[in-house]
Amino acid sequence: MKAYFVGLALSLGLSNPGMAAAPPLKGSVATAARHYSTATTPIGTLLDDAAARAIVDRHLPKLSADRRIFFARKLTLRAIQPMSQGEITVRQLAAIDADLKRLRRRR
Question: Residue 52: CB partners within 8 Å, gap ≥ 6?
Fold first, then answer.
């Protein structure tokens, strides 16, 4: 049932153009940041970095295994959290952010 709600949240995020993440501009906060963030880093970027993916998998074990995650790669975890029907909590996102701060962003 949890996978259904996460999939539904991902699908809803794609159907709402206001939720689509814009690519970061040169010199933007997201580009200049030295660490990843659930608020500014797209899910695809997190999943492409093995260390960041391990952190996401530790806190949200079913997310990266969901076959529909491809459709949400440009969204952030914070963007899909409100649509997750409580499956992604603010507490989980804070824990992910704390762990991600310990990683150095790969350039």
Answer: 36, 41, 45, 46, 100, 103
